[in-house]
Design brief:
- By secondary structure, this protein is of the alpha+beta class.
- Helices cover 49% and strands 15% of the residues.
- It contains 4 helices and 3 strands.
- Strands 1-3-2 form a 3-stranded antiparallel beta sheet.
- β2 and β3 form a beta hairpin.
- It is elongated.
- The two termini are 15 Å apart.
Length: 95
Amino acid sequence: MMKELDPLLHSQLRLAVMSILLNVEEADFNYIKEKTESTAGNLSVQLDKLVTAGYISKATDGSGVKPRTICKMTDTGRNAMMKYVEALKTYFAGL
């Protein structure tokens, strides 16, 4: 039986962000933007959706000339990713 996929994670850009954050302790906005090849506006909207869901935390480091936005995956986000991957595996059970 195929399990339902988390629609929040089933977006290409949000899944890419979560995949990046799985492999690092934290990542700044510009790094994520570069790796996902997204626009600043679209990335900002998608990050806000992940923050609202509690999947990531986002903080702004105001030190220096230009503020930096830092993103980190939360325990809730890590659990959601694990469930997503397990659900996705049910779609490929015959391989």
